[in-house]
Amino acid sequence: MSAAKIVHPEPGLLELVPIKGKGRGVVATRAISKGTIVEAGPVIKMKKRDRLDRSTVLSHYPFQWDEPPYVHAFPLGYAGLLNHSDKPNCKIESDIEGDVLCIETIADIAPGDELVWNYGIDPWFKVSK
Q1: What's the pLDDT tens digit per position in 4-20?
Q2: Are the beta carbons of 52 and 59 closer than 8 angstroms?
Q3: Which of 23, 47, 119, 121 is the most buried (most CB within 10 A)?
Q4: pTM of this prediction exceeds 0.85
Q5: What is the pLDDT of residue 78?
Q6: What is the pLDDT of residues 63-112, one digit of tens each?
Q7: Are strands 14-19 and 23-28 parallel, antiparallel or unpaired?
């Protein structure tokens, strides 16, 4: 197994704050340019038998992980805390070899803007604008 290729966010770049109608969300504290890898956060890889029951709050956070026998990965960084948007300013991609989830900006982000991504599935909740 190779070592995870973890990239920590710049100190003070991101802040977890209450977001009206959404609960919590991640915002930028200063400008972030398009194409910036904000974080490559580690994951806990999960096999089918490790899947969480939908009645638990934690069951909403795992990402699909295409590395048999693993089917999901539980994020240990900001990836699991970014909210959904039909107009995302970030993307999240799995780095299977590095055992991380990478958050990359796909638009310039201004200070105070929420970092959001498109989950790629029909959300199981009402999407707040």
Answers
A1: 788 888 999 999 999 99
A2: yes
A3: 119
A4: yes
A5: 97
A6: 999 999 999 999 999 999 999 999 999 999 999 999 999 999 999 999 99
A7: antiparallel
Name the one residue in this structure whose structure tokens are 């994951």. Answer: 43
**Whole-angstrom Cα distance, residue 118 to residue 82?**
10
> Which H, E and C letters describe the chain, residue by residue?
CCCCCCECCCCCCEEEEEECCCEEEEEECCCECCCCEEEEEEEEEEEHHHCCCCCCHHHHCCEEEEECCEEEEEECCHHHHCEECCCCCEEEEEECCCCEEEEEECCCECCCCECEECCCCCCCCCCCC
Burial 41-58 (b: 16+ CB within 10 A, else e): bbbebbeeeeeeeeeeee
